[in-house]
Design brief:
The chain has a 4-stranded mixed beta sheet. It is rod-shaped, with a radius of gyration of 34 Å. With about 425 residues, the protein is mainly alpha-helical. The chain has helices spanning about 1-15, 15-35, 40, 60-70, 75-85, 90-95, 100-105, 115-120, 135-145, 160-185, 190-200, 215-230, 230-245, 250-255, 260-290, 295-325, 330-345, 355-365, 365-380, 385-410, 410-415, and strands at about 50-55, 105-110, 125-130, 155.
Length: about 425
């Protein structure tokens, strides 16, 4: 008789092509869209950035160097030679922004002072650096004469190019730190070459960490969409069971002297089997189309079975609550609100747990969150101890759901 109940539930589900299309087709479409759209982010690829930088010098740097050397003739000759090779704006243009690495994404245009207003109104520029009139002269005084006030460059950034502007700000900050270091070394008569040699001789113990298999965007969203959409199997079976109550099918089963526990177990079995098949279809399609492969099929099978137990428990719990409350509102609430909330906490849409340990822990206590963490652990080739904890959560969730459902399920007299 249990097989007949399962067969009846399965036929009712299979005879609803629209629902089957949503259960199977929707996760496949979502995997394709999210996997392609977020592939660069999930794979750690750097975004393509092009920075157009304007440089405005209010006075020639060479003239300021001549003025300084003319006023400070008492300085040693080697100091003057050092100045010529360490002019700040020349270094900024040639060594910093003119380096091969910077040229790949930064284009520097030197702007005449009388064109500065036009450049500031040009939206194509990411940032504009203005070099004050006596910047180099004052900086030489600061570095070699011990002046207290350090001159500063003026930076204008375009708010519509925030990422590029922040890159320019970071480069200038690092450049300023290098100038400050050079000043400190000069004041304390420390040889920069000797310091660099000593730093290179610093050694440390290096420990190798166990490497994990990388997870691509298609891997991640295959798992995320599978563990989310399989929960709709539970709500679909709960809706079918409640329809049978309204059409007196359940009452006729009871009148046929079939125990209500047989019907209860039939709903549980249907939820488990269809959840298992649903996961196999989604992962099988992803294996064929997206090349999502599993290094450990035994671990994959155990996670899928454990997840199916949890989904079966939810299906029978929704059925019992609908029967107890004489309403389908609990099933609608689960499919429309609760599934989305659990998907968010479990990381189906985005690895939200990476930003908060509390959210990660909370998400791992949801069935989809525990299932996703277990699948990801298997996919990465983690130790079995990391997988078994999530399997235990799934099985316990399913068992507790079945116990609560058995307590809530109406008895023979209450059902009629």
């Amino acid at each position: 008789m249990l097989g007949q109940i399962f067969k009846k539930q399965a036929l009712l589900l299979l005879r609803n092509p629209v629902q089957l299309l949503l259960l199977v087709g929707l996760p496949i479409i979502l995997i394709l869209i999210l996997g392609v759209a977020l592939s660069s982010f999930m794979n750690g690829e750097a975004p393509v950035i092009q920075v157009k930088l304007g440089l405005v010098e209010q006075a020639e740097e060479s003239a300021q160097l001549e003025q300084f050397t003319a006023e400070q003739k008492e300085l040693p000759a080697e100091v003057f030679n050092e100045m010529e090779s360490m002019l700040p704006i020349q270094l900024l243009k040639e060594e910093v922004f003119g380096s091969e690495e910077a040229k790949e994404f930064i284009t520097v245009e030197e702007i005449a002072p009388n064109k500065m207003e036009d450049v500031l109104n040009d939206n194509t520029f990411t940032a504009v650096i203005e070099v004050p009139e006596n910047f180099t002269y004052e900086l030489l005084q600061y570095l070699y004469l011990g002046e207290q006030q350090q001159p500063a460059l003026q930076l204008y950034t375009n708010t519509q190019h925030q990422l590029g502007a922040s890159i320019v700000e970071d480069i200038l900050t690092q450049y300023q730190q290098q100038l400050t270091l050079q000043s400190f070394l000069g004041e304390n008569r420390i040889d920069a070459a000797l310091l660099q040699e000593n730093l290179q001789n610093v050694t440390a113990d290096v420990s190798a960490l166990e490497q994990q298999q990388p997870v691509s965007s298609k891997d991640y969203y295959t798992i995320g969409m599978a563990v989310m959409n399989v929960l709709f199997i539970a709500s679909a079976i709960g809706s079918i069971a409640f329809m049978e109550k309204n059409t007196f099918v359940f009452n006729r089963v009871i009148l046929a002297n079939v125990s209500h526990w047989v019907y209860f177990l039939g709903v549980l079995m249907t939820g488990m089997v269809f959840a298992f098949l649903h996961l196999l279809i989604i992962f099988g399609f992803s294996w064929i189309v997206f090349d999502v492969t599993w290094p450990d099929l035994v671990g994959f099978s155990l996670v899928t079975i454990s997840f199916a137990i949890a989904v079966g428990g939810i299906a029978v719990l929704l059925t019992a609550l609908c029967y107890r409350l004489h309403s389908e509102v609990i099933t609608n609430f689960f499919s429309n609100i609760l599934v989305s909330l659990m998907a968010l906490l479990g990381g189906s849409f985005f690895p939200i747990g990476d930003s908060s340990a509390f959210i990660a822990t909370l998400g791992n206590f949801t069935p989809n969150g525990a299932g996703m963490s277990a699948y990801l652990s298997v996919l990465r080739g983690n130790e079995w101890t990391e997988v078994t904890n999530h399997l235990l959560v799934l099985v316990l969730f399913g068992v507790i759901s079945v116990i609560v459902a058995a307590w809530s399920f109406p008895k023979r007299g209450a059902a009629l």
